[in-house]
Amino acid sequence: MKNRPVNQLPDSSIEKRIWPYQNKYSATELSSQESEFLSRDDLPIISVVTPSFNQGQFIEQTIRSVLLQNYPHVEYFVMDGGSTDNTKSVLEKYSSWITDWKVEDDNGQSHAINKGFKRSSGDIVAWLNADDIYLPKTLLSVAKAMVDYPDAGFCFGNWHEIDATGKVKNTYLSRTPSVLGLLTNVKSYVAQPTLFFKRNALEKIGFIDESLHMVMDFELLLRLLVKYEPIQVDEVLAAYRTHPATKTNLMETLAWAEREIVFQQILSSDNITTDILNLKRSIMGVFFRRSAYEHLRSLRLLKGIRSLLLSIIYNPFQVLDLRLWWGFLKGPNN
Predict the structure, then answer these.
(1) Are 6 and 66 in contact (CB under 8 A)?
(2) Domains (ranges, CATH) in the chain?
(3) How many Cα atoms sit within 13 Å of 323 on the Cβ side?
(4) Alpha helices (H) in the chain, listed in sequence order
(5) Contact 206/269 with Cβ under 8 angstroms?
(6) Rounded CA gap, 308 and 306, in Å?
(7) Is the pTM here over 0.85, yes or no?
(8) Is the peptide bond before 20 cis (omega within 30 degrees of 0)?
(9) pLDDT at position 247
(10) Residue 174's closest CA among 106, 244, 232, 94?
């Protein structure tokens, strides 16, 4: 691990008085209880992986938000898929603080994350995309939660939504996920940047599914929740950045195709409880109804009609529910 003092960190290339542009977080800002916790002999190692591709506009902020945590046992890996922008120069600038970084062709984001996970040795692992950031003391809060609840397979927390400039647009409170909750919600209601996993849990269920490029966090959560309980950290742990070039905005069609695969797989798994299996037709009806709404709203007419027909096939009784269809016209409510 490279643990050079944060007071030696280079200045940010952008001059702003907001986190994480300035070197404003130091050991003097810790409470006595926090300092005592950080002096423990059994403090877990946290490994953070950033998959990256042409996010040079934001990646310095991401890197600084990890390095400025001032957590004494952190590994940091950046796995870049061959960026053609200024990413490499940013990585070189912070190379003395980054445990390891690569700029090379890969098979996509999931592959890059797994490469980092396999290089790491942390007791706790996470990935932070190259346009998102951690909040101050996030790693401290995560380490404390994991130490206090050793049987938890992963932890999660609250999050900000920020724009391209770093301005907070919204703040969201997390709620405890469950297999049934995720399936009936269709999309994940846990922000990926706030997720931290126990390594031994991931090693037992398997790392990220590299065939998925859009919903790998959703699928991973489902597999984890089958075997492990999570722990909630009631703090804002990360900021999720939304901007026009985000992958989510650009590849929504692929996301729905992947969700369909994941739903079919999880509802055919031997590990799913009988009560959830008994709701399979209802769950798939909701899934395809939601999918139909999103496709039709975006004028993907053929996909929308297909999803609508499949929704009716799975749950034909919904045809008679006028309130449901009024809700469908207004928005994707279940």
Answers:
(1) no
(2) 6-249 (3.90.550.10), 250-330 (no CATH)
(3) 1
(4) 32-38, 59-67, 87-93, 109-119, 138-148, 179-185, 199-205, 216-227, 247-250, 252-266, 274-277, 280-297, 301-314, 322-330
(5) no
(6) 5
(7) yes
(8) yes
(9) 55
(10) 232
CA distance 201 to 124: 10
Element (H, E) at 154: strand 154-162
At position 231, the amino acid (one-letter code) is I
Q: Can you say whether the dihedral through the CA atoms of 15, 18, 21, 25 is positive or negative? A: positive
* Region of poorest pLDDT, from 13-27, 196-210, 224-238, 248-262: 13-27
For the chain, helix, strand, coil in percent to 5 are 45, 15, 40
Residue range 209-233, pLDDT digits in tens: 999 999 999 999 999 999 999 999 9
State how far the Cα of 91 lies from the Cα of 94, in Å rounded to an integer: 5
β-pair partners for 127? 49
Backbone φ and ψ of 101, nearest 5° = -145, 150
